[in-house]
Specification:
- The chain is α+β, with helices and mostly antiparallel strands and about 250 residues long.
- It has 6 helices and 5 strands, in the order H-E-H-H-E-H-E-E-E-H-H.
- A 5-stranded mixed beta sheet has the order 1-2-5-4-3.
- It is flat, with a radius of gyration of 30 Å.
- The mean pLDDT is about 85.
Length: about 250
């Protein structure tokens, strides 16, 4: 007996799949807005922008199904949602290591953001040398008839970490993941060098910040002394004015 395709069922499935993917697209939009607000606020208050670049990506249905197949999970939307938490992804590139933790703290403190998973590959790099901070977040997305709690992965790394990860990925792709052993060692060595560069730039950043703060404190001290001197001159002027007026022509002694 031939299986009869229910067109209404097929149409409903297509709608649900579309809405499922749209929720992740909206999650990216929502998080991008949050990040831009934090970046602008930080820049306005501290006159410094800790974020260099923000990139986003949405996994294709083909990539999602391949991951579900590898995990051995059911091919249902609910199973996909609970087992593939990186369908929506945002990558934030920062200037310095301290910026990474500052940005992650600001994101995690948002009222409607729940941190589901936290992996610090900076303090604990992967065996190949990879470094980055990974957050799996859950945020509410408000649809026309429902509220969807949607997962999104946020990766935060420095420029050096991003540069290394990008080149490492290209090399592995070129060699179809069969990279010669000596190149694996060199990649790990390059990761160590990138980490050392990050730490050196961090030290320079702190040193410059301390010099700037000391300079601002000195300027404030000079300004305070100038204000005190102006006040003293004003007080002396107020005190001497009646005495001067007393000896002006036309003034009579009382």
């Amino acid at each position: 007996m031939e299986h009869v395709i229910d067109m209404n069922e097929l149409k409903n499935l297509k709608i649900e799949l579309t809405r499922f993917m749209m929720a992740y697209k909206f999650a990216i939009d929502e998080m991008s807005t949050k990040i831009n607000i934090l970046k602008d606020e930080f820049n306005y208050i501290h006159e410094y922008n800790p974020i260099e670049h923000v990139n986003s990506r949405l996994k294709s249905p083909e990539s999602i199904f391949k991951k579900i197949y590898r995990k051995g999970c059911d091919f249902s939307l609910e199973a996909i949602k609970e087992n593939v938490k990186d369908i929506a992804g945002i990558r934030i590139t920062c200037s310095f290591i301290s910026d990474i933790y500052e940005i992650s703290k600001m994101i995690a403190s948002q009222k409607d953001v729940t941190v589901v998973d936290y992996k610090d590959y900076i303090k604990n790099p992967k065996p190949n040398g990879y470094q980055s901070l990974h957050l799996i977040l859950q945020i509410p997305i408000f649809m026309s008839d429902r509220e969807e709690l949607t997962y999104i992965e946020v990766q935060i790394r420095t420029i050096a970490m991003d540069f290394w990860a990008s080149l490492e990925h290209k090399i592995y792709y070129k060699y179809n993941k069969e990279v010669p052993h000596h190149m694996v060692d060199e990649l790990k060595e390059a990761a160590i060098m990138a980490s050392q560069l990050d730490k050196k730039m961090e030290r320079l950043h702190h040193e410059i910040s301390e010099i700037k703060q000391a300079s601002q404190a000195n300027e404030s001290h000079v300004l305070l002394k100038d204000l005190q001197l102006d006040k003293l001159n004003l007080d002396l002027e107020s005190l001497s004015l009646p005495i001067i007026e007393r000896f002006l022509p036309g003034k009579k002694d009382k």
